[in-house]
Amino acid sequence: MLKTHRRLRLLLALVFCSPSNWCEARTQPGFQEILRDVLPAVVHIQSSERPLRPPAYLSPEQYFFKSPSPQGASVFPLGTGFLIKPQGYCVTSYQVIDGAQSFEVITADKRRIKASLLGGDRTIDLAVLKLEGAGRIATLDFADSDKAGLGDPLLLIGQGMGFQPFLSSGMLAAKGHVLGSGPYDRHFVLDFVTHPGNAGGPVIDSRGRVVGLASYVDQGPPHLGFALPSKLLQTSLRELIRHGKVLRAWLGMVGKSLTSMENFSEVHDSNVRAGVLVENLIVDAPAAQSGLQVGDLVVAAADKPLRDFAQLQDLLTDRKAGEQLTLKIYRRKQGFVTIKVLLGAIPSATDLPVTDNLL
User: Fold this and answer.
1) DSSP structural state of residue 39
2) How far apart (Å, rounded) are the C-alpha atoms in residues 306 and 302?
3) How many other CB atoms are found less than 10 A from the CB of residue 191?
4) Which of 112, 191, 227, 341 could form a disulfide with 173 if both were Cys (CB 3.0 to 4.6 A apart)?
5) Which of 247, 282, 298 is the last residue of a domain?
6) Domain check: are 100 and 205 in the same one?
7) How confident is the model at residue 129 (pLDDT cuts 50, 70, 90)?
8) Residue 22: CB partners within 8 Å, gap ≥ 6?
9) Residue 151, CA distances (Å) to 172, 189, 192, 217 in order
10) pLDDT, tens only, 48-81
């Protein structure tokens, strides 16, 4: 009975809290002015079927109420999403829709719109839904995440339970953080928490534009949050809308950054101070076919010096399968060598190595 009363009090607080008071208490100065334009494009996503989620992921109900949806429930809250141009598309976190088969989007004016999964990418925690007969709806614009600076004020809007919006605000704490979810994850670190109640929601800058997509990390620091930057988000969305999946170019190599003098001792050349060491190669993949060898150090790609593994990842993100990529490598006993690699498409084979450093 006590648990029921606690749940009821929290539910009532969420339903009857005043949006204006909440915004005034929690948002940075100036965000109140843009909320009127932003909130209509933030939506709640639910399903008529109980989703088969991975054990580590908490549903919004489990996060807020510490218990799953009861037996016999007909509606299951999944999380937050937001609407973009062209009209008819809803962006969210892959974890939000993972395991669900049916989708319904609830808009700020309480319209219920059926939706279907157009495509998703588990690697970067991104999914896009196609709305059915949405008509005219509010949408959000994107900012250039490359221009976001440390300390910039940010606002995150969640609609995990479908009641009033759940707002969090703070600043950009770090850029380019790797969560370990795969070779292409490159996240913003926020000084406020992302959780199942706001995962999939938009991270908004002071001009009301989307600078990131909130991502929930179950083993992450308890007082920090993470967001997929808008540049990678937009690039991936174009692929998902066009092809239903993100098409990535790949080399077929496992590499690591040289980040310490101990690493540099593997190279035995005083002129080399940065690069990506080739630790393994996939048989018959583009890198191996082009003559790259285990132990080679990639010091430049496309005539740009490589600082680390992350920079090579970013470069491949902007490339397509079938394009040629010129690599400058340092090879023991031979010195510097130039290799041209014809990039391929990442295969869907299940026998690829399980590693975050496969490109």
Assistant:
1) G
2) 10
3) 15
4) 191
5) 247
6) yes
7) very high
8) 164, 165, 167
9) 5, 11, 12, 22
10) 988 887 777 788 887 888 777 777 788 889 999 9
